[in-house]
Amino acid sequence: MEKIIKEKSQFLKIWLRNTYGVKRKSQTQSTTQHSQENSEKQENPPAQVLKIVPEHIPLQEPESMPMQEHEHETAMRECIEAGLFDPQWYRETYSIDFEDDFAIFSDYLTKSRFSPVNPSPAFDSETYLRENIDVFHHQISPLYHYINNGKIEGRTHGPAINRWSPREILTPERTIGEKAKTLKIAICLHIFYDDFIDRFAQALDAFPVEIDLLLTLAKEEFTDHARNTLGGHPRVNKTEIRIVPNRGRNFGPMLVEYSKEIKEYDLFCHLHSKKSLFSGKEQTQWADYLTEYLLRDPNIISGVLNSFAEDEKLGLYYPTTFWMMPVWVNHVTMNVPFIREWEKALDLPPGTEFISYPVGGMFWARPEALDGVIREGWEYDDFPAEPLPNDGSMLHALERVLGSLVEGKGYKQFFYYPTTGQFTTDQSYTTSSYRGTIEQHLPAIQAHACISFDVFDTLVRREYTVADYAKLKLGKHLCEQGMVDDPHDFMKLRNSAEFELRKRANFQGDVVIDDIYKELGAKLGISEADADGLMRKEFELDLEMILPKNEMVELFNHLGSVGHKLWVISDSYYTREQVGLMLRKVGIAVPYRLLVSSTEQKRKDNGSMWAMIKQDLAQEGIDRHLHIGDNVVADAQRPGDIGLTTFHILHPMEKWQALGFPKVLRGSDALDEGQILKWGKLVSQVGRNPFIGE
C-alpha cells in the first residue's frame, strides 16, 4: 500500500504540472469514507440551484502558465491558515492512509475537478462549482480557483452542505481482502474514441488485482494501440479484441461479442469512452467521475470487490448519479414505452417514475444477476441503427431496467456516494435533490424577469389525484341513466375518440374537448347538443375536484405582486376559458398570459410550444426566463433541450414514492374507484407541496 501511495504521489505531481499549470503543486489519488462529523454542515439545502452567474475575469487556460512545486505547497499552507483545508478532517472523512498533508491536498485537487468532495467543513466544493459554472467547464478544482482567482474577483464560498445522508451503510475494508483476490474478473471496455485507450490504461495502474480485458473497438486502426497499451498492461492477464460496427452504442458490442465469455467470470465491469462538447471545449468530468469510482481509485475498487466477495446478494454496483446532471435524471423520462417492452421481455413488474440505475451505462455486476440481458444470441440487428435521439430508445431504456432486473432476481444494488465517502444500498439519492422549501428557492426564482408555470399538478391538483377520474364519474352517471352499460367502457370509448382525432391530425397540434365529444357523440349515436352537454358535464365534474397547490399558488401571486411577468403554459384538451376557470377557482389573483395547447395548436411535450415560447421571449427581449412544472419531459427535458432554464418539481405520485409509501394507483388500480377513493385523496394531500421535508 505504501508503494502505491508513493507511486501515485509522484504521478500526480506530474499530472498537476500539466493540468493546473498555474500556481500550485501536486496530487495523489485515493478515495472516500465519511466519519459522522456532520454537525458543522448545513442541513436541507435548496433542491436545485438557480443562479445568474456574474461576469468575472476570463479564466486563463491552465497550460498557459508554468507551475512550481513550492508554489503549490505555499497554496496548501494558505488554505490551511484560512481554515479552508483541514488535512486531518479530510483523512478521517475519506479514510485513506495518505503519505503526508501534501498528498491529501493533491487528492482533493484531483477529485474536486469532477467530484463533490470537500477539503474541510468550511468549504463546499459543489456549491462553488454550481455558482461558478465557468470554473466547472474549465475543469479547475474549486478551492484552487478560489484561492488563486475567486477571492480576488469577489466570488464567495460557503460551508459544507449535507445534501443527503445515506442510510443502510456498507463498511467494506478499503484494502483488498483475501476472498476478493480469488474472484475471476473481466473488464469490458468499449472504445469509440481512441484517446480513451491511454486513459483506461492509466486508470488501471493501481488496480488492486489482475484482470482479463474484453475490448470492443470502433475502428480497426485502434488495434495496435489497444494491444500494446492495454494488452501489455501489468494488471492484465488476457486480452480479447473485437472490431465492431457502430450499432448498439456501448451495450450492443458487449452483448453481441462477449455475452458467452462474461458468464465465465465471477464479476465484470463495463465501461466505455464518453465525451461531450460544451462551452467550446471537451468536457470529460462525467467520464472522469465514473472512471474514478469504477476503475481508477484502488481504495474504492478494493471496497467494491470486498463487498461483492463478502455478500453474495450484492449484484450491481455503480457510484451515485453524476452530481451535475439534471435533478430529474433518475426519472424514466421519455423511455416509458421502451421500458415496458424490456419489462415484458424480462418478466419484470412495471417500475416507478424515479429509479436507481447506472446513468451513463457503466457498472460492476455479477453475470448471473443480469441473466436475461447477459445471454447468448444477441445480434447487431437487435439494436436500433444510428443516429439515435438524445433520449427515448431501447438502449436508453436498457440501462434503466438493469436495477429492477437485478432486484427481480433477488440481488441488491449498492452505490458509492463520493461526498461522504460511503458505500450504501440506500436508493433515496434519486430524489434527494428535491429536499428544501419554497423560501429557500425564492431568491433564485426572483432573479428571473419572466416566470412561467405549468397548470395541472403544479398550480392545481385533483382531489383524488387520478386525471381520468372525472371521465369515470361521468361514465357512472351515464350508466345510471342507461346510456352505457359500464363506466369503464364509456371511458375507453371517450379516450378512443380523442385518440382517433389525434391520429387523424397525424398527431400534429392538439385536440379540443368540444371536438372530442362531437366524435364521441357520433359513436354513441346522440345529437351534437347532447354531446355538448356531456362535454360540459365532464368539465364540471373535473372542476369540482380541482384544488389549489396552496404554496405554489401563493408563490405565483407573490411573484405577480412584485412585478414579475407571469405566463401559464398547459398541455390540455380543455379550452383556454376552461383552464382559466380552474386557475380562478384555486385563487390565482394576478395578471398572467395563458397559453393552452388546444388553442395554440402546439404542445410542450413534443417541443412545438417551447419553440414558440423561445421565439416570443426573443421578440420581447426577455433574457431571464424560468419555467416551473412537474412533468419531466414536457416541463424540464423538452425546454432544457433548446436552452431554456427550468425548475422541476415533484408530481404528487412522485413525492409519494420518494417518501417510501406503498405503490398505489398503478396499472388497473388507477381506474379502480375503490382504490381511487382509498388512496387518491391522501396522495393529493401529500403532494400538495412539491418539496420533500416541507
From TrEMBL:
It comes from the Bacteria. Residues 23-47 are annotated as: Disordered. This is Rhamnan synthesis protein F. Residues 27-36 have a biased composition (Low complexity). Signal peptide: none annotated. It holds the Pfam family RgpF.
